[in-house]
Amino acid sequence: MPATISSIAELEALYELPSEASLLKEVDRIIPEYRAFIEAAPFLALATQGPEGLDCSPRGDGPGFVRVADDKTLLIPDRRGNNRIDSLRNIVRDPHVALLFLIPGIGETLRVNGRAVISVEPPLLESFAFDGKTPKSVIAITVESVFFQCARAILRSDLWNPQKHIPRKDLPSAGQILAAVTQNRFDGEAYDKVLPERQKTTLY
Fold it and tell me: Where do the H-state alpha helices sit in the chain?
């Protein structure tokens, strides 16, 4: 590809220096102001890395599902999913993680970088029980850096504008995608038929 950047020097020459605020906002712990964002967020993206490469997976639950244990520790219950455990496999082999918190209606996002371990301590799992169901594990993150991201990306995308919501029927369904990638060896129509109820009954 022509005209690509191949050095840090070239990259830095292309962009202006970051503003003072962009640098000052990063801290190595969870201050009360950042804690407020974490406790209000019902959704985050978790990025991990391993021998096979990178992974970024969604995590969501009611606001406050990520517990601030102290100003250096976050606890995330691993709720039911598809059992691929890509993120967990990566954490076992490389503890570096990155989080991006999203709050509906809020332009700023919150970014956290740190190191994670996977805990199966029974009292900890029980403390995250919901409707009598406990997570199989809890991701415990030691925070190394925290900072907010300005609202430009959310504003440009108009992400929270309900008038811009796309009807689900306008995009391929999960079953249609599975049928396509398996060249119709997978019964996508049957999958779509039972998916809503299965998701409802296996949410936790």
Answer: 8-14, 20-24, 32-40, 86-93, 122-127, 152-157, 174-181, 188-201
pTM here is 0.94
Count Cα atoms within 13 angstroms, Cβ side, for 62: 4
Q: What is the pLDDT of residues 45-98, one digit of tens each?
A: 999 999 989 999 999 999 999 999 999 999 999 999 999 999 999 999 999 999
H or E element that contains 131: none
**Other CB atoms within 10 Å distance of the CB of residue 12:** 11
Q: Which of 76, 184, 175 is nearest to 135 (CA)?
A: 76
Any idea what the Cα angle at residue 42 is, between residues 39 and 46, rounded to 5°?
A: 95
Rounded Cα gap, residues 45 and 55, in angstroms = 10
Domains of the chain: 20-157 (2.30.110.10), 166-201 (no CATH)
Q: Could you say which DSSP state residue 19 is in?
A: P
